[in-house]
Amino acid sequence: MQRNNFPILFIFIITIILPGFNPARCQVSMPRNPSPAAQVKQTIGTSQISIDYSRPSVVALNGTDRTGHIWGEMVPYGFELQSSFGNKKPLPWRAGANENTVVRFSHDAKVEGKVVKAGAYGLFVALRKGGGTIIFSKDTTSWGSFFYEEANDALRIDVVTETIALTPRLEYGFMNLTKKACTVVLDWEYQRIPFRVEFDTDGIVLAGLRNGLANMEKPNGGRYHTAAMYCLNNEVNLEEGLAWVEASIKIKETFTNQITKAGILYKMGRESESNKFMKALLALPETTDENYYSYGQQLIRQGRYEEAINLFEQLGKKWPESWLKAHGLARIYSAMEKFNEALALEKEALKNAPEANKYFVSRAIKLLEAGLDFNTM
After folding, report:
1. CB-CB neighbours of 270 under 10 Å
2. 60 Cβ contact list (under 8 Å, min separation 6)
3. What span, in angstroms and rounded, lies between the C-alpha atoms of 26 and 10?
4. Of 105, 162, 177, 328, whose CB is crowded by the most CB atoms within 10 A?
5. What is the pTM of this model?
6. Is the pLDDT of residue 20 over 90?
7. What are the C-alpha distances in Å from 86 to residues 127, 150, 194, 310?
8. Is the distance from CB of 260 to CB of 251 less than 8 angstroms?
9. Angle at 114 between CA 109 and CA 115, to 5 degrees
10. Looking at the 3D structure of the chain, how many domains does it have?
């Protein structure tokens, strides 16, 4: 049969006529109907986890329902012997479909208590009834697990699987989120494969704060105060936090950085020193009702409700027309989940609140009417 050279001749002519033409650029990404690609991301504190994977279904492309035939059949238990492709060794499951499932950690982390360095890892699973071994591999570019090599393992962890409601198409997700940790879950059919990931969020943030403070062009009281506030609000690194707030005060005294200092002293166990410092500060003639309110908010965050109540009562005596007494007391009772008392006080605050604050107070009232703490707004 005579060979048809027209396609080759056509590309040759087009390449001459259009010097910028590249045949490779004409390739089109095709849809993956059986197992579409997906990506999920989650921020934990200031760290990120992302997972790139493909999503097989319990229903085959021809319509066959494979429910009840996934685990131990489609996904073999243990390591499966591959004889027709790849490196022809017993292999784990690719934890998805198509190319490697790839998980990325923006910072060093702990997975089920074991350290894993920041970076990208191929994710594999060797299952057994009721549990399995999750493998984090340095190989992130292979097609599935056909070329899996144990020598590339960065970490192995053992997990216990869970029974869930039917999930027809494989999906990854994130549960039990805190500022430091989460549980990553692989759900498919009636089974969940979970593993816990934890970051040293405070350590990461503090390292960033130290670096930022060390590289200031000139001393900045606001930045020192921000660093100190993180220490106070998270109850970490209090000695260094005290040094940072004192550096802020040295640059410029403000009521805000001084109540932060009082808060840190209190958390350090230096309660009498903290109380004496605040008593003198509140007695200054330039102190305002807003200053009282700011300090009251700090007391509420620290759970010092009786002290906060006394403070707002004092505020009401010094500034009888101020709406902040009722609003401050409402915050306390809301935090204590005494929503009826809080609601009555917030309605009273609404009457005298400046126009710019009425929207916020109205939203707080709606939350209280629903039996919710408005301090979380």
Report:
1. 16
2. 34, 66
3. 14
4. 328
5. 0.81
6. no
7. 20, 14, 28, 74
8. no
9. 40
10. 2
